[in-house]
Structure formats: structure tokens, C-alpha cells
Give the backbone structure.
Amino acid sequence: MTTRIFVPRDAAARAVGADRVADALLAEAGRRKLDVTLVRTGSRGLFWLEPMIEVETPAGRIAYGPVKASDVPALLEAGLMQGSAHALRVGRPEEIPFLQRQTRITFARCGIVDPLSLDDYRAHGGYRGEARARELGPAGTIEEVAASGLRGRGGAGFPAGIKWKTAADAAADRKYIVCNADEGDSGTYADRMLMEGDPFSVIEGMTIAGYAVGAGKGYIYIRSEYPDAIRTMEQAIVVARNAGWLEAFELEIRVGAGAYVCGEETALLESIEGRRGQVRAKPPLPAHRGLFGRPTVINNLVTLATVPAILADGAKAYAAFGVGRSRGTMPIQIAGNVRHGGLFEAPFGLTLGEIVEQIGGGTRSGRPVRAVQVGGPLGAYFPRALFDTPFDYEAYTARDGLIGHGGVVVFDDSVDMARQARFALEFCGIESCGKCTPCRIGSVRGVETIDRVIAGDHRDANLALIEDLCQTLKFGSLCALGGFTPYPVMSAIRHFPEDFGRPRRVAA
Amino acid sequence: MWSEAEAREIVRRHSGREGPLLPILHDVQAAFGWVPPEVVRVVAAALNLTRAEVHGVVSFYHDFRDAPAGRHVLKLCRAEACQSMGGEAVARAVLDRFKIGWNETTPDGGVTIEATYCLGLCSCAPAAMLDGQPIGRLDHAVLDDIAGEVER
Ligand SMILES: Cc1cc2nc3c(=O)[nH]c(=O)nc-3n(C[C@H](O)[C@H](O)[C@H](O)COP(=O)(O)O)c2cc1C
Ligand code: SF4
């Protein structure tokens, strides 16, 4: 009987040697005449253990990691095929505390199934959401999505049900569903993991959206920095099409071209249409006049991929998780200088301290945690003093920050916060679409001004200039690139004054 | 080298699409390694756009090059997650090793090094991508491997 061994094909696992491990396993098994079937899965998201391989045994899957190609002979010698003891054995994956503590709804299949097997997809609950949507009908489906409390996972947190209803109510000859897989925030990779590990959930979410609002065509806009995700998503569409799944709803992939601002929904639509990725003024809302002037639902990939599970198990079950107006679960991506970096899907409400210290295990460098940037390059830097902030849209807004797409980047005490503030302004200048003067020009002046602060030149006057500039950016920007760049800049100045040559204020 | 026939063939391949310009430019760059001005002219004429319009799109997107790339393209992440793991120092070491600056190509045409802002490998920082292949946990040993690959 053949033994199945699972090795991730996730880009981050490949980045640390998963392909070499897979090759070594096949070669070594051949040499030993072992009957092995290699299955390439997505990642479970425990990146400090990648490459993490799993072997199927009568007692369930047994994981080993982090495995190097050179470990393979010894692993087989020790009885890998039976799940026997070895220094790299981490046991049943579900019992690893990092996974055990999670509530995996959106990521239920990721790392477990063969991403391109529809049989696997069905065996692990796939298609159930779409079947339920057909029972409920388009209006009932939208009501269910609204009742779940699902809000956009791309950053702005807008209720998905309301967006869908707006597009459904708009009359037009055709409508579109657009999946935003531009995922430009540093520290985030949830979209990437799903495309590489469970692409059918994206397809199912989009077909449900198409059915609910009456759209016959969907576009998935994937950033060019994700060649693996593009490849897997393309293959998944072919598999789905050949299985007759895409008869009423056609899907096409569009690849970005390295512009961060194209993650902004209207810039993204411009980009698909073949223009510079410049932000459009709203109104009109994309739900009224979006892609090619037609009503368009544009949602983040995680938002869409969560819809099948919501429909399958009901809005109530999903809304039972979370806190306040943040319902359900959020795939938190723990990244940067952290010991246990990875994907942690959990109900809203975990405190930042729990995420960074207990789950993340502190820094990888072993030095004290000093700052944590939440929500990507437009998110605030949090000091330890704010580690009690619960992961929830409103709580972060109340502290002049945002949860964005759920990225959490940890820095140790070697970080220089003046340089981080400088980078935020520099990034704004590099990625500005050019429409608003404060964002296009102000950011460049801001970098020059911070350089003066760093050089010790008229510190207080120059810091006052930066505060002024941040006010202008906040109120004079068409989109959040200019509008939220003040978050990282001002949080760095406020919470880490000593890095700007100012005395630290005593905590109140 | 670019060829007008190939450029026309690329345009033809995408002619049935809504909004074909970006897919065309991606294929142009994949075929020729950059977007030559002569090809901008061909594409503009075929799509009934002005050269200025197509040039405006090419220059807006960081991906599209206005000069040929080296035989290898190494993208190094400069975003926050990689910064937190000392990515800037590693990047400096790479640039020094090849004696070039950001977005430059070595004189022998061996490698182009480009800055990128996030590769989605943020839990395995610092990260890079060599000819589309992801590389994580960059350190001096990994750097030696990359240099070996590029110099081969
Ligand atoms: C500069 C900028 C970049 C953005 N990047 C992304 C992105 O990469 N992915 C994403 O889903 N949303 C991004 N957004 C948010 C989108 O504009 C939009 O809110 C989102 O796609 C809506 O989907 P959701 O409601 O499901 O979140 C960005 C916004 C701005 C201002
Ligand atoms: S804030 Fe910046 S990126 Fe946003 S619309 Fe204005 S110029 Fe463009």
C-alpha cells in the first residue's frame, strides 16, 4: 500500500527549500523501493516549521519540521513512513498549540488538501456554500452574507452584504465581480496562501457573488510579485472549467505590474481597463459604475473566500464569533522579527500582546519587542504600552491605527523609529498615483524634513512641519495612501519620541 | 532583441479582450526583457491609442523596464517585514558584491537587481526572488548560493 507524504508547494515553503525536500524524498524513496505518493499541498501557515512535511498514518497525519533535504535519509531510516520518533517530529499538526488555538473557517482546507483536486475540495466541505446559495436564491444569499456581519478584509472593513445589495439593485446590461488579490501590504500573505493552497474557495466565493448580484464575469487581479499564486489560480480555473463549474460565470485573471496603489479599488479598475492606476473620485461607487462603467462588486480575496463557509454553515454560526461590530474570524498574519511567524485565524478580539508575545513567542532575534506595525505600510506603530488593544476594527481606529488586511510586523529594540517614519513617507512618495499634491509632493518634502530631524537640525521646528504635513495629508488626500500615511509617521513620533531626539514622556 | 513581427503577434493574441493593454505589456516584457519604445509605437497603433498614452501606462508601473534586463533578475524586498529582520543590510551586501545600485544591471549583463516592496514571504524574512523563484531567510550562506547561480 502506498503511503502519502504531504509537502507544501506554498511559495514561502518553497522559499526555504520545500522543493529540494520533495525531490530528496522521491529520490530516497526510490532508492529504498518505498511506495510513496507525494502530495503537494498549501501551507498550514506555521512558517518557522517550514518546510513542514506530513505523513499519513493510521493514527492520522504526523508532521516533521523544519526539514532540510539532507535530513531525508535519516528521517526515512528512523521510520518516517510510520510516523516514528525523530528530533524533527512535531506530532499531529492539529495538536501543535499554534494550530490548536485557532478557529479555521476561511483557512479550513489550506495546507490539508491538494489545491487542484476537486475531489479533495468536495471531501472537505467545498461546494456546500454554493448549493445553499442556490436554495436561498440571490436575495436570500445577500441577506445571509449581511446577517453574518462579514466586513471587507482588504482594509476598509465595509460590510460585504451592503456592497452586494447595492450592485444587485443596480440595473445594467452586465455586471462584474472583481477579486482584489493585489495584497501589497508588507506583513501580509493570506491572499497568497489561499490562492496557492485552496484556490477553489476563491472560485466558489466569486461564483456565489456572481449569482447573488447577477454578474456573469469575474476578474481576479493578482499582483505580479506572486508568480506561484498566479500559476495555481490559473490551473484551478482550468480544472473548474473542465468540470463544468464555470458555465454561467466566466473567470479571468489579470496580473498587476508592481504598483501598490492598484490595490485601491478604483485604481485597480483603471488598471484592468488598461490605464495608469490612478484613483477615481467617488461617487460613483464601483457598485453603481465600476469596471467598464458597469455595476461591480470589488472585494478582497479573503472576503470572497470566506463566503462559501458562511453560507455552508449559516450566518449565525459565523456571527457567533468575534466582538462588537467585528464579527467572525480574521486571518492574522504574524510576520517580521518574530519567533513563531505564521497565519493565525481567530475570532476578533485577541489583544496585540497575546498575538505578539503568547502566539508569536516574541522576537526571532531574542531581543525585546519594541514596536509592532499593524495593518501594513499605512498602519500605526504600536508600543508595548498599547499591547492591550483588542484586534477589532473600531478599537484600532480609536487608537489612530487600523487592522487593514491583518498584517502584524514585529520589530525588536534595535529598530530606529525615525527611520521607520522616514520610510513611511518615502513609500508614499514612491507609490503615489500622483493625483493629489500633498501625497505626490508633500511626501517627498516630508522625507527631506525628517532627514533634517535625524541630522539634529532644528528638531522641534521640523517636527512641527511634519505634523502640519500630516494634517494636510489626512484631509487633502483622495485615498488612504496619502490619507493614512500619517498613521505610521505620527505613531512613531508620538510613541517613540526618544528616537526623534525628544525626551520620553512619562506614561500617564 | 525585439522584433516587430513578434510584437504584432502579441497584440493579436490579446485583441479579443476587454482592456488588453496590461496583458500585452506583460507579454512584451516577457518576450523582450523590457518594453522598447519601438514596441510602444506598434502597440499604440494597434490599439488606436496615442504613443503618449501607452508610454504613460508603461512609465506608471514599476514592473515595466525602459532598458533591457540582465540574464538574471534578482528582486530584493525593501518593505517593513524584511526591514525588521535586517533586510536593508543584507540588500546592501548584495549590491556591494555585484558593485551596482538599485535597479541597475552588472556591466557583463549577468544580473539586474530590483527593489520590490513585499513578496508575501514576510514570515521568512528577509526575502528575495531570483528569476521568479522565491527565496527566504536570506543570509550570507543563501547569498553565496545566489551569487553562484548568477555567475554560472
Ligand atoms: C493604497 C491602497 C491600497 C490598497 N490595497 C489593497 C489590497 O492590496 N488588497 C485589498 O483587498 N484591498 C486594498 N485596498 C482597499 C480597497 O480599496 C478596497 O477597500 C477593497 O478592495 C474592498 O474589498 P473588501 O471590502 O472586501 O475589503 C487598498 C486601499 C488603498 C487606499
Ligand atoms: S492620496 Fe495619493 S495615491 Fe491616493 S489618490 Fe491622492 S495622490 Fe493618488
